[in-house]
Amino acid sequence: MQKFKALGISNEIIRALNEMGFEEPTPIQLEGIPVLLEGKDLIGQAQTGTGKTAAFGIPLIEKVKKHPGMVQGIVLTPTRELAIQVAEELNRIGQFTEIHALPIYGGQDIQRQIKALKRHPQIIVATPGRLMDHMRRGTIKLQDTQMVVLDEADEMLNMGFIEDIEQILSTTSDERQTLLFSATMPRPIQNLAQRFLHDPALIKIKAKEITIPLVEQHYMEINDRQKFDVLCRLLDIQSPELSIVFGRTKRRVDEVSEALKKRGYSAEGIHGDLTQSKRDAVLRQFREGIVDILVATDVAARGLDVSGVTHVYNFDLPQDPESYVHRIGRTGRAGQPGLALTFVISRELEHLHSIEQTTKRKILRMPVPTMADAVEGQQRLTVEKLLNQVEEGNYDHYKGRAEELLTEMDSVSLLAAALKMLTKESHSTPVKITEELPVRVRTYGGNRRPSNAKKVVPKITPRNNSWKY
DNA sequence: AAAAAAC
């Protein structure tokens, strides 16, 4: 925290950073914050997860607070979800100040937004289309805007927002401070920078640092018909805390999420054809862990920062290397390890290879897990779930399964735990299990995996980042 | 070719 203080950040914000668990500034914060506090324009080549939002958010809030009233800061993002996420982070950074950030995006009731705007948030985080809508209606005026942040500028370019962005920038004062963040710097983005930024500082997080070092990357060669069953197997075996399954189309996302739900997984789909309120709700549930598998199109590929995402499954190979990098970047965040696993059908192997070359990272082949692997994984999960229930004192629901398991378990402590569970009244004191719990259980009908069988699929263990079943 | 984004 001393290092944050040394950057010249005010006490209220330091206090908020403390509460948010920030310890040391990331490279982009260390370099960017002083430059921005000085008032310079900035081009930042970095992704989220590098602490980018705080890098512009801290100076933004510092600057804004001295001039209460009108809209003084604008952040533009390519997707609606990102607008919500960035606004939330800004509000956390500014929680001990009088500064408020409001997300403004399409698909949400505009009257509701107009009402919220009457409370005069100093910062607006918006997708371009809806912001333009408000500008035309006169419900947002940008004359007093002192800082404009273009977040994920290359993606906004891809989505055809460049003209909107130019128009928005032209509406604001030339005195404004302009920040442009982009993972890549294609020609049109360079032109934009040249036209609208004045003598910008350049901060580049090198390519090596852009690819996420803590994400283990694997692929599995598989045919299309097997994909769903194998996904279920993997979910059982690897038991992710939270996971994202990326599909190629909206339709595909619907199919996979429905099928997962039918099999009893806690999954929800998200894509651009859903109503915005549904999208907001799904993402909220996912963040809270109410839903633990998010099935998504590339709408969720960029910038989304959800803590606890231990696994990303590319159910379908992404179209381009850029999309691949963004998708797998949803895990391995904030220094936590993550696993990215990509399903590849044989004719796509070459495409996978080109992704490998572009990202300059080896994607390791992983064999399809056997049925025995799956059975064992499933049982381990069931036992773990059961034991959690025992700890929490909710026995009734698991009674039947527990009785079944009693005949299968070869571990004395598991047996004892389950016995306790079955003999306790449902309202009695929960059993506290403190001993190390063995997780191996005997498989059905003596159908053990032969000792010479391959046993290879790594399971992610966040504690030590080692790979084993 | 698909996805995203304003009504």
UniProtKB/TrEMBL annotation:
Q: What are the GO BP annotations of this UniProt entry?
A: response to cold
Main enzyme class:
hydrolase
Which residues does the UniProt record annotate as the domain Helicase C-terminal?
214-376
Which positions does the motif Q motif occupy?
A: 2-30
Write out the entry's keywords from A to Z. Answer: ATP-binding, Cytoplasm, Helicase, Hydrolase, Nucleotide-binding
Give the CC-aspect GO terms.
cytosol; ribosome
Q: Name one GO molecular function term.
A: ATP hydrolysis activity
Name the chain's protein. Answer: ATP-dependent RNA helicase CshA
Q: Which organism is it from?
A: Methylomusa anaerophila
